[in-house]
Amino acid sequence: MIYRSTALHFFRHLVAALGVALLVPAHAAKPSAKPAAKPADPVVLELAHNLGPQAQERLQEVVDRFNKENATDLKLKKLEKGTRPAVLNLIRRAEMGDVLSQPKHFVPLHQMMSSAGKGLTFSEVASDLKAGVVDGRGRLVALPLVYSTPVLFYNKNAFRKAGLDPERPPLTWFEMQGVLDKLQGAGYTCPYTSSWPVWVHVDNVSALSGVPASSDKGQLSFNGLPQVKHVAMMATWTKAGYFHLFGRRDEASGKFNDGECAMITTDSREHADFKEARGVELGVAPLPHHDDVYGGRRSTLADGASLWIGAGRSQAEYKVAAKFVAYLLSPEIQIEIVRRYGGLPLTAAARAAARSALLRDDDRTLEVAFASLNGNGAKTPVRVANIEPVLLIANEELEAVWADRKPAKAALDTSVTRGNGILGSAPALKKAQPF
């Protein structure tokens, strides 16, 4: 009995002990709540550019807005020659030689958009704006983000001072000579200037006169009679003090913006800056034409800064890049680009919206620019101003004319001969786009 009672007592204690032992591991094994997963860091990618301080500040505003709305981390950086392209590269026309000579460093825009699952309807982009950014099948290889065409800007206040009608700008170069004489007589030491002399006075005067600066096969041919007569006229104006040049790029724009020069031929996009100029009541007119050329006035050309996609990047980077491209194409951002950068809207919907916005501001630049292009802005795909070594030669020869060291015919003949020599040794430069 004692044995049985002792055994029973031991058994009860054993069961109790086992119960506790079983309960403790069960309690310890209960999974604890996991900490909330840390959100994945946004993909960092860069947009390389060579914009000036003011334009960079405006681009930064667009990028900041995109990052805020999409929780992305897109950063701006300077575009450096000879380095690996960034994912996104905003390249201006004078820098296109690097793209044409190094096609393996870039991928076509349509290919990147497709792989990222973003559709891109090529037909929506205005035909005027497709120069240098479409392949043989009409597919976009880059985005013509800030394209424009040369126009004539003038200061209406200067016209009034000279006794000229501020609503009747000159339409031909011949008319313009009389206007310049009156402006000079009114005390303007710089009646007329021009930015981007080769782009305006070679590429566009040639196109406007119906004698393109290059053939369909990429042979330079801007030494014909219309071009010689035009450059000779500009040389005469230089001697008379009507025409003043301040550099090869857009240095002249500051002289007009400051009110020093009364008239300027430059890219239509500059209206975004000029309309804020003190003492300048901005007027705009088409680039003047020569009314004695066969066939009359033709069309000007569109060109500018385009967005190119760097090769060899991750799918995650391309997805963000594709989202940014789609963002840039939205009507709201297109209007922003037109109003703040002066670029031509890419689509018909954006053009209609921008037209309404600009008309509210009494700005006719957009209408003047599209009328000047007249649907032909993408003609003559090979432009002198887009090929850096040829551009350098053309600038040198034109400057010899302005300085009265060389006659117009000899300078243009030399430009064409030297330029074709360069293109013959580097045929890739004859292509409008690298793919």
Strand content: 5-15%
Order of helices and strands: HEHEEHEHEEHHEHHEHEHEEHHHHHH
Structural class of the helices, strands and pairings? alpha/beta
- What is the end-to-end distance? 103 Å
Low-confidence stretches: 1-30
Alpha plus pi helix count:
16
Percent helix, as a range, is: 40-55%
For the record, the count of structural domains works out to 2
Number of strands: 11
Instruction: Estimate the mean pLDDT confidence.
Output: 88
What do we call the CATH topology of the largest domain? D-Maltodextrin-Binding Protein, domain 2
Cα shape: globular
The CATH H-level superfamily of the largest domain is Periplasmic binding protein-like II
Largest sheet: 6 strands, mixed
CATH architecture of the largest domain: 3-Layer(aba) Sandwich
What's the CATH class of the largest domain, please? Alpha Beta
Structure description:
The N and C termini lie far apart (103 Å). The protein folds into two domains: 44-147 and 302-373, Periplasmic binding protein-like II (D-Maltodextrin-Binding Protein, domain 2, 3-Layer(aba) Sandwich); 150-301 and 388-425, Periplasmic binding protein-like II (D-Maltodextrin-Binding Protein, domain 2), CATH 3.40.190.10. 45% of the residues lie in helices and 13% in strands. It contains 16 helices and eleven strands. Strands 1, 2, 3, 4, 5 and 11 form a six-stranded mixed sheet that branches. Strands 8-7-9-6-10 form a five-stranded mixed sheet.
